UniProtKB/TrEMBL annotation:
<dbReference type="InterPro" id="IPR000835">
    <property type="entry name" value="HTH_MarR-typ"/>
</dbReference>
<dbReference type="InterPro" id="IPR036388">
    <property type="entry name" value="WH-like_DNA-bd_sf"/>
</dbReference>
<dbReference type="GO" id="GO:0003677">
    <property type="term" value="F:DNA binding"/>
</dbReference>
<dbReference type="InterPro" id="IPR036390">
    <property type="entry name" value="WH_DNA-bd_sf"/>
</dbReference>
<keyword id="KW-0238">DNA-binding</keyword>
<dbReference type="Pfam" id="PF01047">
    <property type="entry name" value="MarR"/>
</dbReference>
<keyword id="KW-0805">Transcription regulation</keyword>
<dbReference type="GO" id="GO:0003700">
    <property type="term" value="F:DNA-binding transcription factor activity"/>
</dbReference>
<feature type="domain" description="HTH marR-type">
    <location>
        <begin position="1"/>
        <end position="132"/>
    </location>
</feature>
<keyword id="KW-0804">Transcription</keyword>
<protein>
    <submittedName>
        <fullName>MarR family transcriptional regulator</fullName>
    </submittedName>
</protein>
Length: 136
């Protein structure tokens, strides 16, 4: 299926731009949202957990977490090991997560407008399989 990657990548950039616009009210970007989303869905987490999830270097996640700490969206809590940094959402972080989640859900509905449920389901099931194949 020649042209698939070109087609996918032509979708990716405008989507990230739109997400960044949605979250700019909270001084967030999609890359910061990824950290918030991970912590919200997996609970208090280490920098290594988050970096492994997104296949991003730990120093990159560290910079994102520092920015989120500056915004008072996340905070560090003590771990078993003094060297291990565990990050969790603050009350403000929980509130911002909910507001952004609503905006993102609305965007998801708008983006899928005119695409029947069967096509949406197939796409939703296919994308993780493509990711798995790329990571092999």
């Amino acid at each position: 299926m020649e042209g698939f990657f070109r087609s996918y990548l032509s979708l990716y950039r405008p989507l990230i731009t739109k997400l960044n616009e949605l979250m700019s009210t909270y001084q967030l970007s999609y890359s910061l949202w990824q950290v918030i989303f991970y912590i919200k869905n997996y609970g208090p987490s280490t920098l290594v957990d988050i970096s492994n999830q997104y296949n991003v270097e730990k120093p990159t996640i560290t910079r994102r977490v520092h920015r989120l700490e500056d915004l008072q969206i996340v905070k560090q809590i003590p771990g078993k090991d003094r060297r291990e940094k565990i990050i969790q959402l603050t009350d403000l972080g929980e509130e911002i997560y909910q507001k952004c989640r609503e905006k993102i859900t609305e965007l998801e509905h708008n983006v899928m407008e005119g695409i029947d449920k069967e096509e949406q389901t197939i796409t939703f099931q296919t994308l993780p399989k493509i990711k798995e194949n790329i990571l092999k």
